[in-house]
Structure formats: C-alpha cells, structure tokens
Amino acid sequence: MNRREVIAGALAMTAGATPAPRRIVSLNSCLDAMLVHLADRNQIAALSHYAREAHGSTVAAQARTLPFTWESAEEVIALRPDLVLASQHSALATRNALKRLDVPVQRFKVPKSVDESLAQVRRMARLIGHADRGEALVARIQAAIAAATPAPDVRRLSALIYQPNGFAAGPGTLVDEVMEHAGFDNVARRFGLRTWGNVPLERLLADPPQVLLVGEPAPGARSWADRIMTHPALKAVAGQMRQVRMPEKLLYCGGPVLIDTAAAMARARAQALKEGA
After folding, report:
1. Among the CATH numbers 3.40.50.2300, 3.40.50.1980, 3.90.650.10, 3.30.450.40, which is that of 14-109?
2. Which DSSP category does 23 fall into?
3. In the predicted structure, residue 9 carries a pLDDT above the cut 90
4. Are 265 and 184 a contacting pair, CB within 8 Å?
5. Angle 203-194-144 (CA atoms, 0-180°, nearest 5)?
6. Which residues of 254-273 are buried (b: 16+ CB within 10 A; e: fewer)?
7. Helix (H, G, I), strand (E, B) or coil at 245
C-alpha cells in the first residue's frame, strides 16, 4: 500500500467516525464518577447534585468545581447537551421530556456483577470518545480486585454489610461479588436476602457473622435508620463479631468506585483478623 492509499484510508475512517460529544450531562451519581474519570473536563456540561455530597460521592472534590443540575428537564435542556447519561432510576418525567425533544440519552442499568460494571466502563468510554481511557480504567479496577483477593488457602471470614436501617447486600449484587473476591462469605443469604434488603437487629444479634461491615452515620444524623448501626445491643456480641467501618459511598456504584471498594474490603478483612476474628 502506497502513501496516497494510506492517507485516503485514514480520511475515509475519519469521515465515518462519530464525533465525540462536547456537552455531556450526567443524571446519576454512579455515572458521575465514571464520567469524571473518563471525560475531558470541558466535555462535562453538568453532573448530578449528588456528586457534590462528600458522604455519598467518591468524586465530591472534583464535582464541586463543575456545574450540576437537580435533574429537572428544564435545567438539562438549557445546557444544550449532545449526550445525557441516565440510569434506570433517573426521573422518568425528565427522561420523557428529553425524548420528546430528541435529546440523545443513553441509559445504564445497575450492574449486578464485576463483568457488567467493566462493560459499562467500556461502553461509556466509547460513547464519549475515549475508548483507550476505558481500557486503562478497566485494567486498574481488575488490578485492585486482584490485589484485594487473598490466597486460596487463607481462611475466609463470614460477614454482613450493615448500613442505615439494617440495609444489607445479598446475592446477585455487585458488592456481594466484591466481598467474595476479598475473602468474605456473605451471610445475607441465611437472613433470607435475595438482593438488597433489611436485616432486623434482633436477627443479627441471634446469629452474628464474624465481621459486620457497618456504615458511617451521616454527619448530624439522629434518625433510627442511622442509630441502628451504633445500637448499644451490638456490644452484646462484641466477642463473636468484629465491627469494621465501610462507607456507604463504596457500596452502591461500580466503575472506578470498585477500586476503593476492593481496597476497603481488604483493609476490613485485615483489621478483623488482627482483632481476633
């Protein structure tokens, strides 16, 4: 192939390529995190307002320097986006309004496994024109999970996530798989959970796991939902069950959040073993 043919081929490929979006709006906190890690800063027209909340977002520091919306259709349309990233839980009224106005919307489901989460990273990276960054992020996530995985002959520990209102992750959830990789056997199954659900304090005390991955109450929180995580009755099983803090913001998102989740799980396991679990 001569030089002229090479140039002609390159021009043909360029002409057929879809231009990368220049004004992207995210309506979901988990998608916010992926977008911040994958996009150029000047591509981000707005994140969701959840992205700025330090208690619930892993990209709060970056998000506070970027525009945001409250997820209303009026706000989004005013930004003139050429791509909107939404989840299956994003406001239906907003999604319907954007559809009527032919605003490009890409909807993402909640990933139920590590593989599904990695596929979403690759999908978003392609959508925004940075497929190479997607592959780099996938490699970082895989490396973090591998680093958190103990050797096959190392003793496993039974564990339960215990968040506000006794909210716990069961089988068929992304965090359940991360727990498995990190050397924990999730006992949510014996409490009858099939995905996410609530475990009453009484049942937990009657059949405690070796490790309780307990949440961190929101600053100033005084509700029963938050108090359950620090209930005095938990001290009654302190000899059987070690408590280790696991921030909520590391439990509900995939993508780049998995890097911190895997590391936190590994630290939790090491701490529990050190304390005699």
Report:
1. 3.40.50.1980
2. S
3. no
4. yes
5. 100
6. bbbbbbbbbbbbbebbeebb
7. strand
Q: pLDDT-based confidence at 81, cuts 50/70/90?
A: very high
Q: Measure the CA angle with vertex 21, ends 28 and 102; round to 5°.
A: 75
State the pLDDT at residue 13.
41
The length of the chain is 277
Cβ neighbours of 188 (radius 10 Å):
23
Q: What number does CATH give the domain 146-274? A: 3.40.50.1980
Q: Once rounded to an integer, what is the mean pLDDT over residues 186-214?
A: 93
Given a cut of 90, whether residue 104 has pLDDT beyond it is yes
Please name the residue that has the structure tokens 């304390």.
275
What is the β-pairing status of strands 211-214 and 157-162?
A: parallel
Residue 218 has pLDDT above 60, yes or no: yes
Token reading at 108: 């993402």
For the chain, how far is it from start to end, CA to CA, in angstroms? 67
Longest dimension (CA), the chain: 79
* Residue-wise pLDDT tens digits, 149-178: 999 988 999 999 998 888 999 999 999 999
Amino acid (one-letter) located at 207: D
Q: Which of 172, 171, 235, 249 is nearest to 204 (CA)?
A: 235
What stretches of the chain show up as alpha helix (H) in DSSP?
A: 3-16, 29-38, 60-63, 73-78, 92-100, 114-127, 131-148, 174-181, 201-206, 224-227, 257-274
